[in-house]
Amino acid sequence: MNRFAFHTLAILLLFIGHEGHAQFKADPKPISAGWQMGISTSYKGAGFSLHYLKGSDNQQYVAGLDLNMVRDGREYRSTSFFGNQGKKYVFGKLNNLIVLSPSVGIQKNIFPAGAGNLLNLRLGAKVGPAIGLLNPYYLEIFAPVAGRPQLGDRVVEAYDPTVHTYTSIVGRAPILSSPLDLSTQIGVSAKTYALLDFSNHSEAIRAIQVGVNVDWFPSAVPIMADFIEARNNQLFFAVHIGLVLGNRW
Asked: In angstroms, what CA-CA distances link 93 with 35, 80, 96, 192?
């Protein structure tokens, strides 16, 4: 489990424990608008969302933005050829992928809060364009001194499978040393989710969200080099869990 996933799950457990001390939930007041912000994690990567809500108690229209870091299922961290002097990295990785998704959708109140109910269940769905942001995967490469191959410098370069070999890669380059050289691919994004709200107040949103993300692109997204087993994908599917905070009025 990656660190982000571990920390997210720890926050969720603390959150549930805190809200669980409530003895009742106040009867909800009529609402017409609101906002909600969320963080999530899945086996494909981490995500962030920010959305505006408009509608009635029973149904709200949703508009906003989702941002998800997407990993390829073939990404495995390799130990450096240089041992303790090197760093772990993903061998064969060409690009990092972040999917930015402006979206609109609908959210329905299936199990309303109030009258002593401690749980509010809402189901939602969103759709919109998927803007795939690709940035090269940068590595520290050993560049030997001419005539003295046992000596050399570390240089930062975007991974190139035709040039860089296992014995020349020191490890992953620091983020601050990695230049920004974005390219884009445009596709379609869809998301369905269940929102379990444990808030003690009708105006507040304090919820756990479980859902499914699907991103599709017209052509394969070049995350990994061609020689890695299997091909790059056009379709990315992930089940996520996260924490959602917000307010209604």
From this structure: 37, 14, 8, 30
pLDDT in tens, 34-92: 999 999 999 889 999 999 999 988 899 999 999 999 999 889 999 999 999 999 999 99
**3-class SS shares of the chain: helix, strand, coil, % to 5:** 10, 55, 35
DSSP character string of 182-241: -EEEEEEEEEEEEEEE--SSTTEEEEEEEEEEEEE-SS----B-TTSSS---SEEEEEEE
Burial of residue 184 (number of CB atoms within 10 Å: 0-12, 13-18, 19+): exposed
Query: Residue 220 is part of a domain; what is its CATH number?
Result: 2.40.160.20
**Angle at the Cα of 213 from the Cα atoms of 106 and 63, rounded to 5 degrees:** 30
User: What digits encode the pLDDT tens for the residues 152-188?
Assistant: 899 999 999 999 999 999 999 999 899 999 999 999 9
Separation of alpha carbons 236 and 185, rounded Å: 13
Location of structure tokens 């380059």: 173
The answer to whether 137 and 90 have CB atoms below 8 angstroms apart is: yes
CA dist 241 and 184 (Å) reads: 27
Q: What's the structural domain count of the chain?
A: 1
The encoded tokens of residue 11 equal: 């926050």
Domain housing 24? 3-248
Cα-based angle 144, 146, 147 (whole degrees, multiple of 5) = 110
